[in-house]
Design a protein that fits this description.
It comes from Paraburkholderia bengalensis. By secondary structure, this protein is α+β, with helices and mostly antiparallel strands. 49% of the residues lie in helices and 28% in strands. It has 2 domains: 1-44; 47-121.
């Protein structure tokens, strides 16, 4: 076999290897992006309501719901706690939970959390 033919075969094999490696790398990158985005998209499914004044002065209520998965209850809980905490922080105060209730703990149910809270001065 001539040297030119060997170089041509070698060049063709290297091109084929590069092509297959590129495809494998693209698949791994796509998989990593999908796996990385799923928690972000699932987290976005928890939606808290605006803060409303409760019947008693200085008390407020919040409601949040989340869908999908067996830990949606945790997302709805986190959404109301975070919203209440942010609400109090904007006033330079700290959150004090009065009561919290939740509904829907099964995997395919809509999960809901209701929070009644107060804001108190920091010590």
């Amino acid at each position: 076999m001539k040297k030119v033919e060997v170089n041509r075969v070698r060049s063709g094999l290297l091109g084929l290897i590069r092509q297959r490696v590129a495809v494998a790398v693209q698949r791994r990158i796509a998989y990593a992006v999908v796996v990385g985005l799923v928690p972000v998209l699932v987290q976005a499914c928890a939606s808290p309501s605006p803060v409303e004044e409760a019947g008693d002065p200085g008390r407020y209520t919040l409601h949040a719901s989340a869908s999908g998965g067996s830990v949606a209850w945790a997302r709805s809980h986190k959404a109301v706690i975070q919203s209440a905490s942010d609400f109090c922080e904007q006033r330079g105060q700290m959150l004090s939970v009065v009561s919290e209730t939740s509904k829907g703990v099964r995997a395919l149910e809509k999960h809901e959390a209701d929070l009644t809270f107060e804001c108190h001065a920091r010590f």
